[in-house]
Specification:
It is a single chain. This protein is an alpha+beta fold. The protein contains nine helices and eight strands. The strands form two sheets. It has a four-stranded antiparallel β-sheet with strand order 1-8-3-6. Helix 1 packs across helix 2 and helix 4 crosses helix 5.
């Protein structure tokens, strides 16, 4: 388990990132800390809107973020995350093109930005920060693949139980309409699946 996320300082965040992704010296922690940009967002606030260019990785220390897009006039949830997770629009981040995705805060949230340009500058001078950066990107790509495969190959019940196992805080805190949307099922199906999962646990 990582350190508590309540009242985290930039130094705490740098330590937690190092603990999770890469061993670092005191000097490297100083450098990583200098990259971090704290932000606070209100519930419902749009952090990144369609048409923006994503320039940052978002590390959540408090709250919950939702990534979504519009298709045929409907909102579709791409990703949700709580404390000690990173959110980014990876295609926009690297292609420096306007994103079709949006990011919003589902709760009052405290987020530390890691600006991509600055992170890459310091990674050029530190192998450990390079490793951290690479592992963050790997983790994001793996999570996207897991979600895509879950939707392709697994039943509604399996999708829900996997989400409970992988992201229990999300299931407890996110509005059910967004959970259903993320799992590509109707709220009615989600209700049936939750009841079935509860019966299986008894």
């Amino acid at each position: 388990m990582g350190i508590t996320t309540v009242g985290m300082t930039p130094r705490d965040v740098a330590r937690e990132l190092a603990r999770r992704y890469s061993t670092m010296t005191h000097d490297e922690l100083d450098v990583l800390e200098s990259v971090l940009v704290p932000r606070k967002y209100q519930k419902g606030e749009i952090i990144l809107k369609e048409g923006d260019i994503c320039t940052d990785l978002y590390w959540i220390t408090k709250g919950m973020l939702r990534q979504f897009y519009y298709k045929n006039g409907k909102e579709l949830t791409e990703h949700m995350a709580t404390e000690n997770h990173i959110v980014m629009c990876i295609e926009s981040l690297f292609n420096e093109q306007p994103t079709r995705l949006q990011i919003m805060a589902l709760e009052p949230s405290i987020v530390y930005l890691l600006p991509r340009t600055r992170l890459e500058q310091v990674a050029m001078k530190s192998v450990n920060i390079q490793i951290l950066y690479r592992k963050i990107l790997e983790e994001s790509l793996i999570q996207s693949q897991i979600h895509a495969d879950m939707l392709r190959f697994e039943s509604a019940l399996d999708r829900y139980t996997k989400l409970v196992k992988r992201q229990p805080q999300l299931v407890l805190r996110a509005p059910l309409v967004y959970i259903a949307n993320y799992l590509q099922m109707t709220p009615e199906t989600l209700s049936r699946v939750r009841n079935a999962a509860l019966l299986e646990d008894k």
